[in-house]
Design brief:
The protein is of the alpha/beta class. It has a single domain, classed as Rossmann fold, CATH 3.40.50.150. Helices cover 30% and strands 20% of the residues. The protein contains seven helices and eight strands; from the N terminus they run αβαβαβαββαβαβαβ. The protein has helices spanning 3-14, 37-42, 58-66, 79-92, 140-149, 163-175, 202-209, and strands spanning 18-19, 48-52, 71-76, 97-101, 116-122, 150-160, 180-184, 215-221. It has an eight-stranded mixed sheet, sandwiched between helices. β2, α3 (58-66) and β3 form a beta-alpha-beta unit. It is globular. It starts with a helix and ends in a 17-residue tail after the last strand.
């Protein structure tokens, strides 16, 4: 491990707004912060929004700046990436943003039922191979995880450069008859791009520089609906 990463890990450990479970807690056991984000950390009863696969935390920090009346938690397994957003928010003394280092499949170990109002998924790995389908963050498996922590009819936002993941997500939405709020396969060609959707991550800027379209879809996730997964085409990568 490089010295730069070690330095970032040490700084993360000093930040009181960075939650890093012990190695032994990277399993399906409840963390002490579960159900207590507002009472024990944010010290208010404002809505909680989480960003999954937050990377460097640009969206979490950007949203925290725009909405001081909401609380934000960026989630990623890469501590060295989280460091950037954690350091930036520490310097700005933003009190409504925190970061959690964990695998997203363990997200229900950190939030109780109805604790979260909205989810952002920003430029995740599209997991294109057939054998990785269950790892897609908009699969019915992950949506079922989100149902457990989201309030009824909570909002899911996906922003991605991957046409594959975007179209796959639309298929999941269609198959489960979920309600779409906004949808576009070329975000910056739309006239409704606002300061929220205008927040750009490091990876998004790289894709824009390469001439890639940015896809965006937001939809409502009902609480108790049983979700099904699309069948995988025979010609999809093995």
């Amino acid at each position: 491990m490089g010295k730069g990463k070690l330095k970032k890990f040490k700084q993360n450990a000093k930040y009181n707004h960075v939650f890093e479970p012990e190695v032994s807690e990277f399993v399906s056991v409840d963390h002490s912060i579960k159900g207590k984000w507002n009472t024990n950390f944010f010290n208010n009863d404002r809505p909680i929004v989480i960003e999954l696969g937050c990377g460097k935390g640009e969206y979490s920090v950007g949203l925290a700046r725009l909405f001081p009346d909401k609380n934000f938690v960026g989630v990623d397994i890469k501590g060295a990436r989280i460091w950037k957003g954690a350091t930036e928010s520490e310097k700005e003394q933003l009190k409504n943003v925190a970061f959690l280092r964990t695998r997203i499949e363990l997200i229900n170990s950190f939030f109780v039922q109805d604790e979260v109002d909205e989810i952002w998924i920003t430029f995740p790995d599209p997991q294109m191979k057939k054998r990785r389908a269950k790892k897609r963050l908009t699969s019915s498996i992950f949506l079922t995880y989100y149902q457990k922590l989201l309030k009824d009819k909570g909002i899911i936002n996906l922003k991605t450069d991957s046409t594959f993941l975007y179209e796959y997500t639309l298929e999941v939405i269609k198959l489960n008859k979920l309600e779409i709020i906004k949808n576009t396969d070329n975000l910056y060609a739309e006239n409704w791009t606002d300061e929220i959707l205008g927040i750009q991550t490091h990876y998004e800027r790289l894709h824009i520089d390469d001439g890639d379209n940015i896809n965006y879809v937001s939809f409502i996730l009902p609480k108790n609906q049983r979700l099904v997964e699309p069948s995988i085409p025979e010609d999809e990568q093995a």
